[in-house]
Write a structure and sequence with these properties.
This protein has about 450 residues and is of the alpha/beta class. Strand 1, helix 3 and strand 2 form a beta-alpha-beta unit. Strands 1, 2, 3, 4, 5 and 6 form a 6-stranded parallel β-sheet that branches. It contains 16 helices and 9 strands. The N terminus is likely disordered. The protein has a single domain, classed as Metal-dependent hydrolases (TIM Barrel), CATH 3.20.20.
């Protein structure tokens, strides 16, 4: 009797366990399995990852799991294949000394990327100069680095530096950052005023032509709407927005409105929807104004700040503690001295207390922007970026290690493997190849 009773209990437990797995849970498991397969097969490319040269030395580098949002261990964990590493320099004044300081900062970052890919970790990561290089290095089992230039300010007034930056590996460049430059008006001009009548300067127009001649992608992220529309009209090649979202869902000057999106489509370009929380979801106008004032007061953008020369400036190597949240540091903040960083954090705390931030944007919020752009301009003109280590990150995609969550949400929305492949890399690589074709005709 005890044996029969034990068998009956075992059968009952099996029935309960089977019943506990609901159709919804089974469906979710199947969805995850499908997404994992797609994530493994498609080439995954992120067009904007800021860097600190301190993390590209023999003793401290991306072979280690640093507390950065991007490094090789995290790329491997998230199965991220390609990272555009960014030569970023903050906005400064239009003087020769400032241009020289900015140029030195830019060269330090170019050299850091070459040092890592050529001397420190050539067996793990290669530097791609063409779309074919990306595919070749990927087939070799390596992670891939590409160089993007954020802000043309460091070229100063010497247009020959555009070719120098291209020869050093730069494959896209924006003409301004936060603050009007000698080349183009910035998105921040909406609040602070424009320098070039909401457009490009004569030198900026020359730079567009030179980039077309060389085969360097024109980046629309950060310049003003007027500058972007003018750049699109002038460019003989497709353009990109390397890390922007859509203004219809988040009314921020860094995002593209429908007019810009439609011009981008007509041009054949691509917008890389960015996982930057405050571009995906917008704070109150009071908080936004307070943040803008703080940045201006501290010289962190908006045209009044100095391009602080950080060449040779080093910080201690920071290995990530187990279970720690990746450090989210904006590109300009990473270059601040300790005293100014402390003041920034103090003022941020006061702003947070007076104007609390909204709930942090999620992967679902970001994919809402992708959905909008796909419906507005078509799947062939939409891509994906993060702005990691430059202030980027959202709940669910806070480092390269969590890239799968983006693919999972795209699968959940019904996108096919072909469409997901286009957004993760295919569209950007197509634009890059088209830009090269235009250059060969010149």
């Amino acid at each position: 009797m005890k044996l029969i009773h034990r068998k009956l209990m075992t059968a009952s437990l099996l029935i309960q366990l089977t019943a506990a797995t609901t159709p919804a849970q089974s469906g979710e498991a199947a969805l995850i399995t499908k997404a994992k397969g797609i994530h493994d097969r498609v080439l995954k490319l992120d067009t904007h990852n800021d860097i600190d040269p301190s993390n590209f030395t023999a003793d401290c580098n991306y072979l280690k799991r640093l507390n950065t949002q991007v490094n090789l261990p995290k790329m491997v964990q998230g199965d991220m294949d390609v990272a555009f590493l960014i030569v970023y320099v903050g906005q400064g004044l239009p003087t020769e000394d400032e241009y020289d300081n900015a140029y030195k900062q830019a060269i330090e970052k170019f050299e850091a990327i070459h040092r890592f890919t050529e001397k420190i970790a050539p067996d793990s990561m290669g530097l791609a100069l063409t779309p074919d290089d990306v595919r070749r290095l990927h087939k070799q089992g390596k992670r891939v680095a590409v160089i993007g230039v954020e802000n043309g300010y460091p070229i100063g007034t010497d247009i020959k530096r555009v070719k120098e930056f291209y020869d050093r590996g730069g494959r896209y460049m924006s003409l301004a950052h936060n603050g009007n430059s000698q080349l183009a008006d910035s998105n921040t001009g909406e609040a602070t005023g424009y320098l070039h009548n909401n457009g490009l300067s004569p030198l900026g127009r020359e730079v567009i032509a030179e980039m077309n001649r060389l085969g360097m992608m024109v980046d629309l992220s950060h310049p003003s709407k007027g500058a972007n529309l003018e750049a699109i009209r002038l460019s003989k090649a497709p353009v990109i927005a390397s890390h922007s979202s859509v203004r219809a869902l988040a009314d921020h000057s860094r995002n593209m409105d429908d007019e810009q999106l439609m011009a981008l489509k007509k041009n054949g370009g691509v917008i890389q929807i960015v996982g930057f929380a405050s571009y995906v979801k917008v704070d109150s106008k009071q908080r936004t104004a307070a943040l803008a004032k703080m940045r201006t007061d501290l010289g962190l953008g908006g045209g009044g700040g100095r391009a602080r020369n950080t060449a040779g400036f080093r910080r201690p190597c920071a290995i990530e503690e187990p279970g720690a949240t990746p450090r989210r540091t904006s590109g300009f903040l990473s270059m601040l001295p300790a005293d100014k960083r402390a003041e920034y954090e103090k003022q941020m705390a006061a702003i947070d207390a007076k104007y609390p931030p909204m709930s942090r944007a999620t992967v679902k919020d970001m994919v809402d922007h992708i959905d909008y752009a796909v419906k507005k301009i078509g799947i062939d003109h939409v891509g994906i970026s993060s702005d990691f280590d430059g202030g980027g990150g959202i709940e669910g995609w806070d480092s390269a290690a969590e890239a799968f969550n983006v693919t999972l949400e795209l699968v959940r929305r019904g996108y096919t493997e072909e469409q997901i492949g286009k957004m993760w890399s295919g569209n950007l690589l197509r634009v890059w190849a088209d830009v090269e074709k235009v250059a060969k005709k010149n």
